[in-house]
Structure formats: C-alpha cells, structure tokens
Amino acid sequence: MDSGANPDRSDEVPEMAINSTTTPVTEQVTETVDVTVRVPRNTEGTLFDAAETRLGRFTDIVAVTLTASDGIDPRNGATYVTVTADLTVTDVTSGEDIVALLNDAVGVENAELTSVA
C-alpha cells in the first residue's frame, strides 16, 4: 500500500500533521472618561459620530461608546463636543495612561477618568 509519501525525504510533513499557532489573549477593561473632542467643520455624520471616531483612533482603545453629551461649543473652524465615553482598552494600559494619551493628542482636551467598569 503506497501512501504517496517519499520515504527518502525527511523534510516532508506527514499528511495528518496539524500546525497551530498560539495567539496571545489580551484582556480588556472599560474606562469611563469625560473628554472634549474637536470636530472639524464639514465633518460628515453627526458631531457625536465624529467624536466617537476620533476617540477610537488610538491603538490601545479598541471600542468607544458615548454615554452622555455634556456640551457643544461652536468655535471658529470647529465644534468642540464634551462627552462622557466608555473606552474599552487593553489591560496593559491604565486609565491614567489613557487620559494622558488623550490629553496629549491634537483635537482632544480636558480628559478626566471618571470610573473603571
């Protein structure tokens, strides 16, 4: 009975071999922040959609849910939207790190951690 494998070739992978890779699982936590986001004039969609998109652009933030609107401040060239947002972040990022990241970013200001869910 011929299995089709060449017994002289040691570099062949047997037909039933299973290759697997392990992907590290990163736990996530949700941080609640109050933050003001600059939304440029002529941005498509709602102000809140734009604020959500801008907050979600950071690598350590994997999900954004706006839970409250705390104010809208129209200024020359942009509107500033103050919101409360639940940010789902990787567990390697502390709430204080996320607030520092947000406050250092262009178009985001006055970020304050309000709770950890």
Give the tags.
single chain; alpha+beta; Alpha-Beta Plaits; 2 helices; 16% helix; 117 residues; 4 strands
Structure explained in plain terms:
- This protein is an alpha+beta fold and 117 residues long.
- The chain has one domain (28-116): Alpha-Beta Plaits, CATH 3.30.70.
- The chain contains two helices and four strands, in the order E-H-E-E-H-E.
- The chain has helices spanning 47-55, 95-104; strands at 28-40, 61-75, 78-90, 108-116.
- It has a four-stranded antiparallel beta sheet with strand order 2-3-1-4.
- A hairpin with a 2-residue loop joins strand 2 (61-75) and strand 3 (78-90).
- The longest helix is centred in the C-terminal third of the chain and has 10 residues, at 95-104.
- The radius of gyration is 24 Å and the shape is elongated.
- The model has no long low-confidence stretch (mean pLDDT 81).
